[in-house]
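=== RUN LOG ===
request id: a7f3
mode: sequence -> structure
chains: 1
length: 260
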Amino acid sequence: FVHLGNRVYFDGKVWYSLHESTESADAWPKVHDQNKILPPPKQKEYPFVQDTVIFHIIEGKPYTVAGFTFEGFEHLPLELQNTVTENIGIKVNSQYSKVSVDLEAIRAKEVLEENGYPFLSLPYGRGIDVEKDTLRKTVTISMIYITGPRVKFGQIKIVYDTAYKKSGYVRESAVLRQLNIDSGAWYKKSDILISERDLSRLGTFQYVNIELDTAGFSKLSDSAKDGMTAGVIIYLRMRQPWDATIGPYAGSSAKSEFIL
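=== RESULT ===
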């Protein structure tokens, strides 16, 4: 098949042809013949010439979407099933494109990440199945998801980069006040992003990253993990003292929270 921009043509064909210029056809043989009779120190360099490569493309007929299905969401709460299947970007009878499939995968991931599912995945090689009907020029798309467990935010832990420990740290209470994360609430990706943004606005951190602590998950099945709490680790790296500036969002008492 042929990719042209965002579209896929399963019946497309591509080939190329090389068109040598007269200069290219004549220059190399001349130098080659001269070098046959010249000693190595006096041999001439072969000239640099430019030829033209012409690509020939036949698109073929574009394929349209005959059907589209999700798999893997059957065990989700009914309300969430309805949410994830609303506003689907791939429409029946629309022209098929790989980009539209990729965007649909991103949309589903964003919906589930806001509802407690941080580990949604499409298994490589079998997560997206595009079945072609070469007679009707249509495709049927199946997206097979693995949702992973639904988890809640657990205990919060703050970890400073020890390589920058001479730069000081910020009181734990000041860090916690910037968080939009509630222990015991369902995981939401936006809560993490907002918390990272507000910590960065303090102006005292060179690096901020918030991750789930899944160390205790490795030996459990997804069904056993469902509904569990996952710890939250906040990784921080202080700015150098001369580079630290209290941000406008930190409040008037922010300097008193900064410890050297």
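=== NOTES ===
The chain has a mean pLDDT of 82.
The chain is about 25% helix and 30% strand.
=== END ===
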